[in-house]
Every structure is written in structure tokens, then in C-alpha cells.
């Protein structure tokens, strides 16, 4: 039947050896294989227990039985693991080696990966527009990205409007309408000081 991948599918098993895995019930907070798959469906699985592990393609051959159809990787050099007695976790997962395969198609509008496991060039986002020096200095474009260089250029261009007034004893400071920033040095007398 179909290759089925589902979230939060995890059961325990006490099966041993290299045969089918008898699924003994979902771990609290998870769903069982039979809740997520139909008998006959295949899925990617992982079994972990007793210091041993195995990933592969399994077939749900009965509501409580996972047939270990194809081993992909294992602690036994890629072969079926001869699991010892004791409790094991059995869960649905996407093995790293199968990630390109899992991403093919169009999940959530993403066109997926090509046969080499890479994003097709046509699916890459368009280049991000960078502000030109003129746009940075004018400070009028708010849609293009400002690089550190463009930011420095914008500051330098706008700093040209800084007004510097020095008052040595007294004076009147007048703001012009086109002034961008003000730098004022105040000199005091008597006790000295620079502020």
C-alpha cells in the first residue's frame, strides 16, 4: 500500500530477535501505529533498545505487528539487529538518508528537492534588492536592504547637515528648517570645564 509518515507515533515492544516486532501499545502522549497507518501501509521506523538500534522501512502487517521489511542503518552494520529481551521504543521517523525523498513533492507549497537532493534553481527565492548608494544617501527607499556600507554612506550623507555652533560667552542658537542634527559645544568659565 502507501508509504505513510505520521507525527508522534511511538509504541513499546518486548519482541526479541530479528523477526517482526509485536507492538504493545502507544507510549503516553503518542499514538499507536494502527492509529496512524492502515494494515498493509509501509513507513520509516526506528527501533531502540538494549543499547541496539535500527532504522528501516517497515510494513504494518497487522494492527499490532511491524514487519521489518528493509533495514537502512543499524548498530549491526546495516543488517537486522538481533534485539535482546527487554523493552524497546518503536517509532515513526524519517531517516536522514531518506530526507531528500521525504521532501520531494509539494508539501506546504514547497516544490521539493530534485533527484540529487538539492533545491531546484527555479525554486530559490529571488535575490534580495540592495539599496544603491544614491538610495541610501537620499534615505527615501524603505523597501531595499541597507548593507553596513550603505548605512555608513547614509549616515555620512545626512551628517553633512549637522550644524556646529560654538558659544564662547553668550549667544543665540537658531535652528534652520533643513538642519538634520545639531552638535553644540558649551564652554564654561570660572571653574573651567568642557561639556
Structure in words:
- With 195 residues, the chain is an alpha+beta fold.
- Helix content is 14%, strand content 27%.
- It has a six-stranded antiparallel β-sheet with strand order 1-6-3-4-5-2, with no helix packed on it. Strands 7-8 form a two-stranded parallel ribbon.
- The longest helix is centred in the last third of the chain and has 12 residues, at 148-159.
- 15% of the residues are buried.
Task: Note the run of SSEs as H and E.
Answer: EEHEEEEHHHEE
Strand order, main sheet: write it out: 1-6-3-4-5-2
| Class based on secondary structure composition and strand pairing | alpha+beta
The coarse silhouette is rod-shaped
β-strand number: 8
Distance N to C terminus: 81 Å
Unreliable residue stretches: 106-111
Integer-rounded radius of gyration: 34 Å
**Helix residue percentage:** 10-25%
Mean pLDDT, all residues: 78
Percent of residues in beta strands = 25-35%
Brief sketch in words of this structure:
This protein is 14% helix and 27% strand. By secondary structure, it is an alpha+beta fold. The longest helix is centred in the C-terminal third of the chain and has 12 residues, at 148-159.
Throw out a few tags for this protein.
six-stranded antiparallel sheet; 195 residues; alpha+beta; 4 helices; single chain; two-stranded parallel ribbon; rod-shaped
Amino acid at each position: 500500500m502507501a508509504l505513510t509518515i505520521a507525527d508522534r507515533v511511538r509504541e513499546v515492544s518486548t519482541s526479541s530477535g530479528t523477526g517482526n516486532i509485536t507492538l504493545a501499545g502507544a507510549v503516553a502522549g503518542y499514538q499507536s501505529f494502527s492509529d496512524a497507518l492502515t494494515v498493509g501501509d509501509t513507513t520509516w521506523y526506528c527501533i531502540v533498545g538494549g543499547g541496539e538500534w535500527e532504522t528501516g522501512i517497515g510494513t504494518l502487517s497487522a494492527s499490532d505487528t511491524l514487519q521489518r521489511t528493509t533495514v537502512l542503518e543499524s548498530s549491526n552494520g546495516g543488517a537486522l539487529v538481533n534485539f535482546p529481551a527487554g523493552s524497546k521504543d518503536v517509532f515513526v521517523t524519517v531517516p536522514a538518508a531518506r530526507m531528500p525523498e521525504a521532501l520531494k513533492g509539494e508539501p506546504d507549497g514547497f516544490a521539493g528537492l530534485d533527484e540529487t537532493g538539492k533545491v531546484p534553481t527555479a525554486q530559490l527565492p529571488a535575490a534580495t534588492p540592495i539599496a544603491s548608494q544614491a538610495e541610501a544617501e537620499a534615505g527615501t527607499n524603505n523597501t531595499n536592504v541597507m548593507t553596513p556600507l550603505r548605512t555608513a554612506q547614509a549616515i555620512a550623507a545626512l551628517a553633512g547637515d549637522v550644524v556646529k555652533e560654538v558659544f564662547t560667552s553668550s549667544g543665540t542658537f537658531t535652528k534652520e528648517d533643513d538642519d538634520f542634527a545639531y552638535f553644540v559645544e558649551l564652554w564654561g568659565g570660572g571653574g573651567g570645564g568642557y561639556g
